[in-house]
């Protein structure tokens, strides 16, 4: 069956579909990284270590300014922290909790 009922949404699913398409076409998997990962770790390997990073969607929710904050606005600092966390380059990326 070649029709797609829904679009590919996750990197692990894209890896699986790539392998599936090669096998159904009668092609050789050869040195395809996802094929080696699948042979070594099975489907769990494709899910745990996809070829590309997952894309995360987020939303911004507004908040009222606290009455006790004086002249500074803690919302601006939190917003800067979140943008810094999201836009950090991979080389300097550190695991940390946002806002701490």
Question: Can you describe what's shown?
Answer:
The termini are far apart. The protein has helices at 11-24, 33-48, 74-87. It has 100 residues and is an all-alpha fold. It folds into 2 domains: 11-48, no CATH class; 58-100, no CATH class. The protein is built from 3 helices and no strands.
Summarize the structure.
The chain has about 100 residues and is mainly α.
Short key terms for the protein model shown above:
mainly alpha, elongated, 100 residues, 2 domains
List low-confidence stretches: none
Q: How confident overall, as mean pLDDT?
A: 77
Tally of distinct domains = 2
Broad shape: elongated
Tell me the helix content: 40-55%
Question: End-to-end span in angstroms?
Answer: 50 Å
Structural class: mainly alpha
CA-based gyration radius: 21 Å
Total strands: the figure is: 0
Largest sheet composition = none
> What portion of the residues fall into strands of 2 or more residues?
under 5%
What is the H/E string? HHH
Number of helices: 3
């Amino acid at each position: 069956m070649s029709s797609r009922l829904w679009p590919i949404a996750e990197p692990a699913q894209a890896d699986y579909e790539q392998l599936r398409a090669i096998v159904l076409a009668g092609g050789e998997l050869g040195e395809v990284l996802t094929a080696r990962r699948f042979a070594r770790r099975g489907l769990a390997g494709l899910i745990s270590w996809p070829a590309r990073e997952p894309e995360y969607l987020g939303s911004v929710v507004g908040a009222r300014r606290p009455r006790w904050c004086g002249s500074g606005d803690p919302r601006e600092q939190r917003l800067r922290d979140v943008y810094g966390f999201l836009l950090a380059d991979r080389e300097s990326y550190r695991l940390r909790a946002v806002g701490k």
